[in-house]
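Write out the 3D structure for:
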Amino acid sequence: MVNQVFALGGDLPVRRLGFGTGGLVGPGYWGPRGGRAEARELLRTAVERGVTLIDTADNYGPDLAEELIADALHPYGEQLVVATKGGVVRTGPDQWHVAGRPEQLRAMCEASLRRLRVERIGLYQLHRFDPSVPAAEQLGALARLRAEGKIRHIGLDTVTAEQLRAAVESVPVASVQNAYNLLDRGSAEVLALCEARGIAFLPYYPLGSGALTRESAAAVSAVAAAHGASPGQVALAWLLHRSPVLCPTPGTGSPAHLAENLDAASVRLTPRELELLDALTTVR
């Protein structure tokens, strides 16, 4: 039986299969994708289906995804965790730069608090380490925000194993968000560190930017057919089976695709099926 719940930071339980909000904004994470009413309904449906982890960022839109979450779900239920990110400034579609000075991170966090209409953010992730600012200063800014009660847990986005090892020596790290999926296992070393330390791993591109929603490999097709499932559902189920710390948050703007993604939690893979999927040629 696959455990469907993970405790972020050891004390904040969430359903492992969550919902990402990148699909609620326009191409390149810029501007709106569709109507606000449709986005709000999709968020409400996700929560009604049992989602308790919603992943977003201040630069999705920018600002728009956080505003949609608050419009749809505030006041939030006790079990709902909204994870957001700061440290990146978006200037256009697929155009962004890092901004990791302590005063910038504080201003971003406080702006997210206002947009989400909360006094404390459950999980606040540094979207990227700023190479022009010492890592200790960036982590220190997050630690101070945590000490002030403005964030509950600290996470890191797109980190190397070396960066993670160094970070956990100075701050409690509750989550990591790196690319990881059935065909891209380049962060295997980071995943192993997360497993050893009880850190949640929120894999971005869990469906390979859409590649894994199609018939991408014979093994995926065969497993999908055996379960009456889609290739995308098999890819998500594989993540849930692969490691107990993996907490995928696939995003979509489609109600049908949302239902398909969430139904992946009911796909139970056999040991033989896992062997077939594990053996797929991957990008490392």
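The chain has ten helices and eleven strands.
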